[in-house]
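[step 3/7] inverse_fold.run input=structure_tokens len=229
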């Protein structure tokens, strides 16, 4: 398991690296956004721990470029206590989790374990629904546009997990409980509302492939090729 810690505060970075190394991970460190951006294009990481306030390229930009490349590596952002807007912006840009500084290293390790566990559950087969192709082993989802060119759809790890469950059961109703299960490795306290939010985001992202997630009132959700109707 290879992790990249992006943190410019030397004391905090040293603490993070020591804790994660002791927990058995191979840990690389980048002290600014430029270095992080370069490392992320060279080596496949299992998890990225990303500070937002960074010299050169800030954390938002690193995250934005990462997702624009179609990389679905799990990302945990580190934010200041008062920065609600930063957290929201980070999650919108495709972060999977966040920790508020100062945080407890034991909590960090637990969150890291949960994110990595989730990342390992992929399978090898590409799943196809209409123009949408989902590939768990390559960790990507793309669609064929009007010119038959592949266009990557940028998904957070949670959106990716939801789509995986829906793709496996396409044209069948999947209950909220089943969707919750696909995410429960992260967050046991995730509620129905959270599922609705994630489904809403996913729905918007895959609409471009003419694939829709229908809400079946009282039962759950159903993924289908929108062109069939
Ligand atoms: Ca910083």
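[step 3/7] decode complete -> sequence:
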């Amino acid at each position: 398991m290879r992790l990249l810690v992006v943190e410019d505060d030397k004391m905090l970075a040293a603490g993070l690296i020591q804790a994660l190394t002791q927990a058995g991970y191979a840990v690389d460190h980048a002290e600014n956004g430029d270095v992080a951006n370069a490392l992320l294009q060279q080596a496949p990481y299992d998890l990225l721990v990303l500070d937002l306030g960074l010299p050169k390229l800030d954390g938002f930009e690193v995250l934005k470029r990462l997702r624009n490349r179609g990389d679905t590596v799990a990302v945990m952002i580190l934010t200041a206590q008062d920065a609600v807007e930063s957290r929201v912006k980070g999650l919108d840009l495709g972060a999977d989790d966040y920790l508020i500084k100062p945080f407890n290293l034991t909590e960090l390790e637990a969150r890291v374990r949960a994110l990595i566990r989730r990342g390992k559950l992929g399978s090898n087969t590409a799943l196809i629904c209409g123009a949408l192709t989902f590939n768990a082993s390559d960790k990507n989802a793309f669609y064929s546009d009007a010119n038959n060119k592949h266009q990557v759809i940028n998904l957070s790890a949670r959106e990716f997990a939801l789509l995986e469950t829906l793709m496996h059961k396409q044209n069948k109703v999947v209950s909220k409980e089943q969707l919750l299960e696909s995410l429960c490795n992260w967050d046991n306290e995730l509620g129905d509302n959270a599922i609705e939010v994630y489904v809403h985001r996913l729905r918007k992202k895959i609409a471009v492939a003419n694939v829709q997630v229908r809400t079946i009132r009282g039962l759950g959700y159903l993924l289908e090729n929108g062109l069939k109707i």
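[step 4/7] annotate
Helices lie at 10-22, 33-42, 59-68, 84-92, 105-119, 157-168, 176-183, 192-206.
The chain is about 40% helix and 25% strand.
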